[in-house]
Amino acid sequence: YRYGYRHPLLSQQGKHIALVMDFGGGTFDVSIIETTKDGDISHSGRNSRPLAAKSIPVGGYFVNRMIAEDLLFESIKDKKKKKFAREMLKRIHSFEGITDAEAGFAPDQEKDFAQNFRELLRDIEGAKIRICKSISNWNLNSDLSRSVSHLVPLRSDPFDAESKVYEISLTADRLRKVFVETVWNNRLRDAILRAVNRAKTELKNKPISVVLLSGG
């Protein structure tokens, strides 16, 4: 809230009930605060604490992973390999956190899968940013056919680090679909609703007057 305090809507020196959402690289944080009559956050008393708050480990990295899984499972045709890939993804929660030393202790197939998936995540980060910068209308019904699409390299065999590389297209439509279905519907919406429901008693039917979005 303080970060956006100079925004014209907040600098009117009026009382606010603000829903503040921060979507970062690793976490999504949501809180509801009631300001003082001057529109500021008090250092003590009722207005010094959020009426409700919720934090979940969902951020930009999680989005990358959901996109990576969507592309990966489309590319794997063999049912046994697809099942093995799902088991690997469940076991290794943070591929970015795997050190080379740790990967060295894994069986070759698992080590190659981890290496290939980490490379895929890095490629998706750049593709995601370029696609998002090309989207001019974020309405969920908007036509994204004119937005930039990006070719993402994938190994023909995700369990072989030396297998042939080919490219699969990541479009703005596909990125939006993955975000809405796996990030918003399954994770973010529930976190927001939980915070709003927790604040209902203290709000006493007073409406939220401003919504602030923060983060990269």
A few lines on this structure:
The protein has helices at residues 60-75, 79-91, 100-104, 108-134, 172-203, and strands at 17-23, 28-34, 52-56, 150-155, 165-170, 210-214. With 216 residues, it is an alpha+beta fold. Helix 1 crosses helix 5.
Q: Explain this structure to me?
A:
This protein has 216 residues and is of the alpha+beta class. Helix content is 43%, strand content 17%. A hairpin with a 4-residue loop joins β1 and β2. α1 crosses α4. The model has no long low-confidence stretch (mean pLDDT 85).
Instruction: State the low-pLDDT regions, or none.
Output: none
Give the helix/strand class. Answer: alpha+beta
Major sheet, described briefly?
A: 4 strands, mixed
How many helix segments? 5
Helical amount: 40-55%
Strand order of the largest sheet: 3-2-1-6
Strand content: 15-25%
Overall geometric form: elongated
Q: What string, H for helix and E for strand, traces the elements in order?
A: EEEHHHHEEHE
Distance between the termini: 16 Å
Number of strands: 6
Overall pLDDT: 85
Kindly provide the radius of gyration, computed on alpha-carbon positions and rounded to a whole number of angstroms: 21 Å
